[in-house]
Amino acid sequence: MGSDCLFCRIVAGEIPATIVRETDTTLAFRDISPKAPVHVLVIPKEHYADVATLGQGDPGLAGELLAAAAVVAEDEGLLGDGYRLMFNTGAYGGQEVFHVHAHVLGGAPLGPMICR
Ligand code: AMP
Ligand code: ZN
């Protein structure tokens, strides 16, 4: 994907981000517009458009992404009170950046899963 994708550009170091964790295959950085006291995005370095494409295309990498998100949640102090792990997928899911990312949200009660 590369230059057309915002998160590929963050992986390439072309766009700055506040990185909180990096592995060989994943990167975690703070959301630029946080929706909770803790709001970290966890992505695979390799480009997949969404969680369905990733899960079917490379289940091992999907597992590494989940493991990285769990470490981020622990490092951010979220294990005691809990947190939300969210993958917006497609237009109705509210996905805006089409490079799969897990939202790690916590640090305060997050309310109902969906506001109607
Ligand atoms: P989604 O709606 O699930 O695709 O989420 C995209 C997220 O990316 C939003 O929460 C944005 O605030 C976040 N975002 C957009 N641009 C950046 C950026 N340059 N650095 C960090 N987070 C970003
Ligand atoms: Zn990408």
User: Average pLDDT, to the nearest integer?
Assistant: 96
Portion in helices? 25-40%
Number of separate strands: 5
Oligomer: single chain
Ligand kinds: adenosine monophosphate, zinc ion
State the end-to-end CA separation: 35 Å
Tally the helices: what do you get?
3
Radius of gyration: 14 Å
Q: Which class of secondary structure composition applies to the elements?
A: alpha+beta
Weakly predicted, low-confidence segments: none
Give the strand order of the largest sheet, numbering strands 1, 2, ... along the chain. Answer: 1-2-3-5-4
What general outline do the C-alpha atoms trace?
globular
- In percent, how much strand structure appears in the residues? 15-25%
List the helices and strands in order: HEEEHHEE
Main sheet overview: 5 strands, antiparallel
Structure explained in plain terms:
The chain is an alpha+beta fold and 116 residues long. The protein contains 3 helices and 5 strands. The protein has helices at 6-11, 51-57, 59-75, and strands at 19-22, 26-30, 38-44, 83-86, 102-106. It has a 5-stranded antiparallel β-sheet with strand order 1-2-3-5-4, covered by helices on one side. The chain is globular and about 35 Å long. The mean pLDDT is 96. The structure holds adenosine monophosphate and zinc ion (ZN). Adenosine monophosphate is lined by residues 6, 15, 17, 29, 31-33, 41, 88, 94-97. Zinc ion (ZN) binds next to helix 1.
